[in-house]
Amino acid sequence: MSHLTAHVLDTMTGTPATGIVLHLETADGERIASARTDADGRARELGPAVLDPGEYRITFQTGEYFAGREQATFFPASPWTSRFSRTRTTTTSRSC
Predict the structure, then answer these.
(1) What does the radius of gyration of the chain's CA atoms come to, in whole angstroms?
(2) pLDDT of 34-71, one tens digit each?
């Protein structure tokens, strides 16, 4: 089971954003894992079973998603950086 999940919603349509590729990386840019959102807009298995405390970046590759809908986008990728510790759980949703 993955320690980290993500949920992406398309705010223009009010629906889950299906098929967005996400990359999990360390703060230094080392790629740890990749996943793609499912029909519910969720990437349920993003990353290892355990993440060590530290800073991590998830990059949402939104360019392909919008291109598939013939929509222009200002942000072909949307990075999100957060610091994780053993004593804190953070829940985050990302909207396109």
Answers:
(1) 13
(2) 999 999 999 998 888 888 899 999 999 999 999 988 98
Contact 94, 79 (CB under 8 A): no
Q: Which of 74, 80, 46, 44 is nearest to 60 (CA)?
A: 80
The pLDDT of residue 95 is 58
Residue 93 has a pLDDT of: 52
Q: Are 78 and 59 in contact (CB under 8 A)?
A: yes
Query: Rounded to whole angstroms, how far apart are CA atoms 51 and 84?
Result: 8
φ, ψ of residue 44 to 5 degrees: the values are -80, -20
